Amino acid sequence: MTKIIDKPKLSTPGKIDLARLALANDLPGLSKLVAAIPGDPAKAGTTKFYAVRFLEWFADQNGPARFSVFMETGNSKLPFYAFSSLPGFDCPGAGACLYGEGNKHNSANFGKGWCYSFTAWRYPAAFFRQLQNSLLLRSQGGRAVIADKFQQIPAGKTVRLYVDGDFPNQEILKYWMDLCKTRPDLSLYGYSKSWELFLALDRTGYAWPENYKLNLSGGSRYAGQLWIERMEKLPITRGQFLAVPVDRKFIKARSYQDKTRPMSNEYRAEVRQAMRAAGIQKGFACPGNCGNCLPNGKHACDSLNAPIAIGIHN
After folding, report:
1. Which of 85, 115, 184, 212 has its CA 20 to 30 A from that of 192?
2. Together in a domain, 47 and 159
3. Are residues 113 and 252 in the same domain?
4. Distances (CA, A) of 58 to 121, 128, 228, 297
5. What is the H or E stretch that residue 59 is in?
6. What is the pLDDT of residues 223-264, one digit of tens each?
7. Residue ranges making up the domain that contains 223
8. What stretches in the chain show pLDDT beneath 50?
9. pLDDT digits (tens, 9 = 90+) for 61-74
10. If residue 285 lies in a helix (H) or strand (E), which one and from where to where?
11. Do residues 233 and 303 share a domain?
12. How far is CA 292 from the centre of its chain?
């Protein structure tokens, strides 16, 4: 008998189970799980609606992608083209952000960290887009689909690689860097904790693209001054992007989302204080909205020559 899932929105653990089945290419198991999600599959915007659409594509992945591969100009917080895949599953360098501070890096602690990407799973379309993209990256045909969509991005645009997720292996890292070279008219940047993949590719003598900037994301399992110094020698590295502890009231008020949010000034002052406590005397506190973090439409993560930090609750 098929077990019925009580919550129609499908909890984070339920989405993790669904992702594991899809990545294992378990169509029977995935079909049962989707069938157990209550709701009307014809009702747009619901988890059931998107899950059924995803399952139809999954059963025959030769068909067109059901979800946009790139978010076109994103939203007011992400005013550029953006690519995402599954957080955690595609993050081989993740440490405390995924598993929690001091926890072992194993399946039992998966998702117990402070990774913000899982909050996007409140929106079922975002989750299934990430899952679709993770699957596309895992096949030659899927990567051809992504490359085709990449070539369709209008000239002169800014592209953020991996709003969620990360470079899962050296092959995919090289795939993206090679794609960057095909579009010198684009400005690309992103964040990564998969530092060993970059260093391994660099050791092959790889020539990095000139139009990609890398932010060294905090929470990496490779954290440490020696790792940072090695990564900062790469010609593509902009600098560090850290997560520092702040008072929970700022998280509750969502002060980290935009300069217009309540207590934004106080929040950013506490971020700077936390950076100084960590030994970083000159740094930039991310206000949250990439559309207005710097004047003239610039954003710090692809142009500022200083460490950048956001706040997480203690």
Report:
1. 184
2. no
3. yes
4. 19, 11, 39, 39
5. helix 47-59
6. 788 999 999 999 999 999 988 989 999 989 999 888 999 999
7. 70-123+155-313
8. 1-8
9. 888 899 999 988 65
10. strand 284-285
11. yes
12. 20
